[in-house]
UniProtKB/TrEMBL annotation:
<dbReference type="GO" id="GO:0016020">
    <property type="term" value="C:membrane"/>
</dbReference>
<keyword id="KW-0472">Membrane</keyword>
<feature type="transmembrane region" description="Helical">
    <location>
        <begin position="43"/>
        <end position="62"/>
    </location>
</feature>
<feature type="transmembrane region" description="Helical">
    <location>
        <begin position="134"/>
        <end position="151"/>
    </location>
</feature>
<dbReference type="InterPro" id="IPR000791">
    <property type="entry name" value="Gpr1/Fun34/SatP-like"/>
</dbReference>
<keyword id="KW-0812">Transmembrane</keyword>
<protein>
    <recommendedName>
        <fullName>Acetate uptake transporter</fullName>
    </recommendedName>
</protein>
<feature type="transmembrane region" description="Helical">
    <location>
        <begin position="112"/>
        <end position="129"/>
    </location>
</feature>
<feature type="transmembrane region" description="Helical">
    <location>
        <begin position="74"/>
        <end position="92"/>
    </location>
</feature>
<keyword id="KW-1133">Transmembrane helix</keyword>
<feature type="transmembrane region" description="Helical">
    <location>
        <begin position="163"/>
        <end position="184"/>
    </location>
</feature>
<feature type="transmembrane region" description="Helical">
    <location>
        <begin position="12"/>
        <end position="31"/>
    </location>
</feature>
<dbReference type="Pfam" id="PF01184">
    <property type="entry name" value="Gpr1_Fun34_YaaH"/>
</dbReference>
<comment type="similarity">
    <text>Belongs to the acetate uptake transporter (AceTr) (TC 2.A.96) family.</text>
</comment>
<dbReference type="InterPro" id="IPR047623">
    <property type="entry name" value="SatP"/>
</dbReference>
Length: 206
C-alpha cells in the first residue's frame, strides 16, 4: 500500500515591527507630555513604560529574532530594556522601594546611561538608512532625544530638556505613522502609506 508523502508546511510569523513601533509611540507620547508640562507626575508614566515601552518592544524583538532580523531584534530589545530601567528609576524616585533608595540617587548616573544609548543609537541610525526612511528619521529623532537627555542629566541649561521633550513627542507621532503604514501596507499587500525606500548607500536597494 502506497502512503502519500508528507506535506511540508512552511510556518511563517507576522512582521512584528508594527507592534514594536506602537509600543514606542505610546510610551514616548506619555513621557513627552510629562516633560513638556502637559501632564504631571510619573506614576502612570511608569506603567506605560513597562507594558508598552518595554513589554511590547521586547515581544517585537523576540519575534524579529525568529525572522533572523539582527537589526530589528537588537533595536527593539535594547529600547525595551531601556524602558524597563526607566520605569524602575521612576519608581525609585517616587519612593516605591523605600526612602533610603530614593534619597541616594545621583542623576549623573542617568547621564552616563543616556550617553551610552546615544552612541548605540548613532550606530543604529546608520543601519536604519537601509531599512526605510520613516524608520531612519525615527532613529534621527532618538539621537536628538538622547543628546538632550544626556546633557540635561549633567545639569546643562533648560534648552536640552526642552530639546529632549519635543524630540520625544515627534518620535511618538512618527512612530504612530510607521505603525499604521506597517499594518496597512501588509494588510493590503501594497504601499498604502509611503515609508520611503532605503538610501542604497551601503547596500543595493531591493
Amino acid at each position: 500500500m502506497n502512503h502519500p508523502s508528507p506535506t511540508h508546511v512552511k510556518i511563517t510569523t507576522a512582521d512584528p515591527g508594527a507592534i514594536g513601533l506602537f509600543g514606542l509611540a505610546i510610551v514616548t507620547l506619555v513621557a513627552s507630555s510629562q516633560k513638556l508640562g502637559l501632564t504631571e507626575g510619573l506614576g502612570y508614566a511608569a506603567a506605560w513604560a513597562v507594558f508598552l515601552g518595554a513589554c511590547a518592544q521586547l515581544f517585537a524583538a523576540i519575534q524579529d529574532a525568529k525572522h533572523d532580523n539582527t537589526f530589528g531584534m537588537t533595536a527593539f530589545a535594547a529600547y525595551a530594556f531601556f524602558w524597563f530601567a526607566m520605569a524602575a528609576n521612576w519608581m525609585i524616585k517616587l519612593g516605591t522601594f523605600g526612602p533610603e533608595l530614593a534619597g541616594s540617587v545621583d542623576g549623573k548616573q542617568l547621564g552616563f546611561a543616556f550617553g551610552g544609548y546615544l552612541v548605540f543609537t548613532l550606530f543604529m541610525t546608520i543601519g536604519a538608512m537601509e531599512t526605510n526612511k520613516v524608520l531612519f528619521f525615527i532613529f534621527c529623532l532618538i539621537d536628538v532625544l538622547f543628546l538632550g537627555l544626556t546633557f540635561d542629566a549633567f545639569g546643562a541649561p533648560e534648552f536640552f530638556h526642552q530639546l529632549a521633550a519635543y524630540a520625544e513627542m515627534a518620535i511618538g507621532l512618527l512612530s504612530l505613522y510607521g505603525c499604521g503604514a506597517n499594518v496597512l501596507n501588509a494588510h493590503f499587500g501594497r504601499e498604502f502609506l509611503p515609508i520611503g525606500r532605503p538610501f542604497g548607500i551601503f547596500k543595493p536597494r531591493p
